[in-house]
Design brief:
The complex is a heterodimer of chains A (186) and B (134).
Chain A: H1 30-33, H2 44-58, H3 68-89, H4 91-100, H5 115-127, H6 132-158, H7 167-183
Helix pairs in contact in A: 2-3, 5-7, 6-7
Chain B: H1 5-12, E1 27-34, E2 39-47, E3 53-61, H2 64-77, H3 82-86, H4 90-97, H5 104-130
Antiparallel strand pairs in B: 1-2, 2-3
The chains are: A mainly alpha (186), B alpha+beta (134).
Chain lengths: 186, 134
Amino acid sequence: MICWKCHERLSSLRCASCGALVPPPAQPELFGALGLDRRYHVEAEAIDGAWRRRSKDTHPDRFASASAVERRMALQWTATLNEARRVLRDPVTRAWYLATGKPHPAESGGPKLSPEFLEEIFELRMAAEDTPGAVRDTAAQLRARLDADLEDLFSRWERGEGDLSPVPERLSRLKYVDNLLRELPA
Amino acid sequence: MAYSDKLIEHYENPRNMGSLDKNAEDVGTGLVGAPACGDVMKLQLKINDDGIIEDAKFKTFGCGSAIASSSLVTEMVKGKSIDFAEGIKNTMIAEELALPPVKIHCSVLAEDAIKAAIADYRKKQAERAATPSE
């Protein structure tokens, strides 16, 4: 990529020669915005590091005396990088993003869950008041199984096998189980 | 965020909480969930041979808006016909409770629950009609 302003070859978001900023993408791909590969398996530290490096290049303070267009571009980069960090740092929003391009499901609609699963969650909820310990154990097992399932789906996808179409359904189940776990009486 | 008095009232004093016998022939059960928030709502209707809803019960595990939506909807359908209940739209619930935009999906859940309960009742009736009486 070359600089839009001085046509110098670029090695970061900011031109080493003239200091101009790469225009922020209108519809940013969040991994790309941080200069990372699209992967589920990524350490939080790697995301923080990429965010810090790129934020340094695009920080609005560096463009305080630049043109209005460049000041605007710096602001937009900051917003994009912050969003990328927020969405990709959390494994659940990262998984949603990889599978659907959105960090979470739509308000209504979303994957249809089996009546059996809803029944199971409802029964666990009903039992939660009387036997919270047993419900906690069952819910923790459900959680572990879903985690293993997601782990497997993403590992295979990263090796170029299979696709991520079953992911939204698994993540939706995860949401029910996490809500249940969170609201269990201590 | 400010919630309406009506919503708070239904949340603090939910009407028709509880359950009916899900195996009874005249009871339809709807169990629905909202993947976005992980709420679950069970709504049951006891319907007589004239198609009138004699009783309605619900149990909801979810936020205040979901509880208030299900409470309101049981109140709306009690004593009414199946046809009326089927015509209930989530917008009626959302308006009545003045739900904020981020909570509209709670009223959708309540509409879905009513529809699911009626569908379950109809299925039972069809099965009963298909089974020769002894």
